[in-house]
Amino acid sequence: MSDILHVKDLRIAFPSRSGPVEVVRGVSFDLGRERLGIVGESGSGKSQTGRAILGLTPPSGRVTAQRLEFDGIDLRGASAATWRRLRGRRMSMVMQDPKFSLNPVMTIGRQIVEAFRRQDNAPKREAKDRAMAMLEAVQIRNPERVYNAYPHELSGGMGQRAMIAMMLITEPDLLIADEPTSALDVTVQLDVLRILDDLVTQRGMGLIFISHDLRLVSSFCDRVLVMYAGRMVEELKASELHNAQHPYTRGLLNCLPQIDGGQRPLPTLKRDPAWLA
Ligand SMILES: Nc1ncnc2c1ncn2[C@@H]1O[C@H](COP(=O)(O)OP(=O)(O)O)[C@@H](O)[C@H]1O
Ligand SMILES: [Mg+2]
């Protein structure tokens, strides 16, 4: 299995009144055609890590890395033309809230068709057939209605699926899903995860699944990176989560409610300044 993504010593800094502040501080990992989870509390740098890989860091941010490479292409300082060739085609990102990623004044169908035609220049008729097939693939039961709907006419779960359909119609090699299910209710969450799972196993896509939910990530992913305050503090096989060494990860595990855990109050996580060292 060859890796499609290499990240080495990724650092992202934003300006502040007292000078640049690093919010991602030396993140390194490689990704094959697998499901990699990134977990960590809010503000730990997960989203900025994902955005940097797609060249979507806000303009004020400064990104450096010893290596940032997608399928042999150096992403550091990549040209606008290179990003156009990659983003939305070979690599895509599903954001937490579909409202910000779907165009509010264009029907869902047209957005999906345009995403496909940007890549393939296929005839309109064929693009529409593919878009409908894609909506069915994300288990939308009434694809014709959704095809003709505007984003505000869809429920959160439908919007999320429509967005996933749009991201996937180009059959990307890498998908970054940033908390893709946290706005959804539990049954829809499971549907979305199943769809993502099929794509990894059937199409050999590489998936980075970002979440603050350690239990969800460990049941869904092959491997988990744990981030704390901009650093990767631990990397684990999902099946070996119980062997976690880092006190932050252990703290997270101890805070998970146990199904047979009786009525004990949940412990709160105690932070040690030494974790920042
Ligand atoms: N545009 C920005 N300007 C300055 N700081 C930012 C900006 N975007 C994010 N940050 C900071 O970067 C840190 C990491 O953010 P983020 O990657 O979104 O965290 P997470 O996704 O893990 O919740 C946070 O402290 C956040 O405040
Ligand atoms: Mg985030």
List keywords for this structure.
single chain; 277 residues; alpha/beta; five-stranded antiparallel β-sheet; 9 helices; 34% helix; 23% strand; binds adenosine-5'-diphosphate; binds magnesium ion
Word description of this protein:
Helix content is 34%, strand content 23%. The chain has 277 residues and is of the alpha/beta class. The strands form two sheets. A six-stranded mixed β-sheet has the order 7-8-9-3-10-11, sandwiched between helices. Strands 1, 2, 4, 5 and 6 form a five-stranded antiparallel β-sheet that branches. Helix 3 (108-120) packs across helix 4 and helix 3 (108-120) packs parallel to helix 6. The protein is globular. The mean pLDDT is 87. The chain binds adenosine-5'-diphosphate (ADP) and magnesium ion. Residues 46-47, 178 line the site of magnesium ion.
Overall radius of gyration: 19 Å
Q: How are helices and strands ordered from N to C? A: EEEHEEEHEHHHHEHEHEEH
The N- to C-terminal Cα distance equals 35 Å
The percent of residues in helical segments reads 25-40%
- What molecules are bound to this protein? adenosine-5'-diphosphate, magnesium ion
Strand-pairing-aware structural class: alpha/beta
> What is the total tally of β strands?
11
Strand content: 15-25%
Total count of helical runs of at least 4 residues: 9
